[in-house]
Amino acid sequence: MVDVSTTWRSQFEAQACANAPEWLTSLRAKAFARFTELGFPTRRDEEWRFTPVSPITETIFTASTQTVSAEEVALAPFAEIGGTRLVFVNGKYAESLSEVRALPKGAIVTSIAQGFREHAETLEAHFGKYVQGENHAFVALNTAFAQDGALIIIPRNAIVEDPLHLLYLTVAGDTPTVSHPRTLIIAGENAQVTIAEVYSGIGEGTTFTNAVTEIVLAPNAVVDHYKVQAESESAYHVGVQQVQLDRSGNFTSHNIAIGGAIVRNEANAVLAAEGGECTLNGLYIAGTGQLIDNHTAIDHAMPHCNSHELYKGIIKGKGRGVFNGKIFVRKDAQKTDAKQTNQTLLLSKEAQINTKPQLEIFADDVKCTHGATVGQLSEESLFYLQSRGIGLEEATSLLTYAFASEVIGRVKIEALRDQIHSALFLQLPAAIRPEA
Amino acid sequence: MLEIKNLQARVDEKEILRGINLTVNAGEVHAIMGPNGSGKSTLAGVLAGRSAYDVTGGSVTFNGQDLLELAPEERAREGIFLAFQYPVEIPGVNNMYFLRAAVNAIRKHRGEPDMTAGEFTKMAREKVKLLQLDPSLLNRAVNEGFSGGEKKRNEIFQMAMLDPKLAILDETDSGLDIDALQIVSHGVNALRSPDRAVIVVTHYQRLLNYIVPDFVHVLANGRIVKSGGKELALELEEKGYGWIEKELAATA
Ligand SMILES: Nc1ncnc2c1ncn2[C@@H]1O[C@H](COP(=O)(O)OP(=O)(O)OP(=O)(O)O)[C@@H](O)[C@H]1O
Ligand SMILES: [Mg+2]
Known about the structure:
The complex is a heterodimer. Chain A has helices spanning about 5-15, 20-40, 55, 70-75, 110-120, 120-125, 135-145, 380-385, 390-410, 415-425; strands at about 60-65, 85-90, 90-95, 110, 150-155, 165-170, 175-180, 180-185, 190-200, 205-215, 220-230, 235-245, 250-255, 260-270, 275-285, 290-300, 305-315, 320-330, 335-345, 350-360, 365-375.
């Protein structure tokens, strides 16, 4: 048997770190050491109980140097949403495929590799400062291996009108390939930005994307963030997103997961100062051969913050879904208003969901609600549609779409919304396409 | 057009229809009246194909076809329309999109081409006027947040759009004020023609002043216990159902 951990080690040692600043080299070394200590999680680990990652941890992955043409990129799902686009091929920035349009003065939208060279101070101050790698093997692994990804810095008072599209393309090769994309988004005081972080795929074959995203909001910053996970059905994906909100920051996340064989999304936010507002929207669709796991954690550390969370799952065939929603309300976080909803639609008898809200409240003057529902399509509604001449399959599609529409309707980027809409209908039993 | 013979049906082991016989010819309007829980909605539901009911005996033919063999959508495409006693709210499904899908499904079955968006909108506008519906309701989700009266008018609006052969109205008049009742009746009468038939389920004779029936049937305890002309409705209005039961007891 091949020793997988030896492979990670030799890859880590072989990794080119020329010109890396001292702090980064040391951060990577520490992260790798931590990864070695932790080892990959198993199902005995409470946080991974329903998500066996052995297919990932028992495979030998290597980094890929594959390139793709602009034509190939155009065919990938969610490749075009207009405006500024940074393209990454297996985690590596592809400048020739990218285009940065006019930006407000002082705004930086570039690759993190370039950031290490040109914005070393900012990176040293923020990189790895929010995400928790101490107890998370995948995060530690990402930090050890992260060579590239996106760096977005929006200066104070700047408003970026058009969405920034980060297109992480996973291109399958002859052997299993891995990438460790790293994204850092810093929104200055009063700044406003919309970012679409898209993980898309080209080709079939085993791939592993191990992504980490850190997002920092200065006071009063507004960030609308979209994550779309639409890699191939043989892709493994672990993505951890960590958000830090300063006073009166306003963060909205839209997490759309439709691709992948094993997908683990973590969306974590810390409301670290008063008046923060955090909205987490999620939609995941898992069919036969897919497991989609969403773990979210909202940490109310300070008073007068709001959080709203709505995650909807559609599980069909023999698909599996996992939802775990944590809300922490710390001792100081009086006047917290937190609401969490997880709804799952099971479209077959074999479809499975494990859903668990987890509220830990240490303050007394707070409003916290949560609700989880798991159900099938309403017989009444199906009959009503059928009684008007609409076939059973089409009625099923319509109602499934209706179930998802609350989340899709919150997507403000029109091009993205249309593509989610089409992708959803492609996923459903009968591909009916109401005009958007 | 419709021939129901000795129809028996149950829900969860509970016998509800105990041998219904009814023949409806094209051009006719039949009223079905009867006490609460007598099985009127069950009969309507069985005809439309609601799966909660188990048909345990008897037969139903519709224009020569075995109706009970058909899926609900096939019955609708063959021309059966049920106006629900309790129309279903369907959040997230746009009324217009839903209706267009329905209209085109039925047209397809008849071998007609899909309606274009333009043709559809034009027809919808006309019918909305006929039923004096607030056009903004069309762009909302199906029945969601509609008032009781709006839901009932929306049922008849759908009927007008779908152009059925046999319309079954289950208490479409319940809860309507007199203005709304007239509007709804007007909508139903607009559909009346020699090649169509209507079954109206109601508790009130009042509706039958506007939609004048050819026959009135009394359903009690899962059977049609009395049939007559429109004057039977007046008699029921006056005396209630008690006298029929007594009459039945006397003959038994
Ligand atoms: N889904 C169901 N499950 C159990 N019992 C049912 C169901 N549907 C109907 N019933 C029962 O069957 C009987 C007939 O009901 P039905 O709705 O057909 O009566 P109805 O004549 O339409 O009454 P109403 O005038 O109140 O509308 C009632 O006793 C009712 O409680
Ligand atoms: Mg009834």
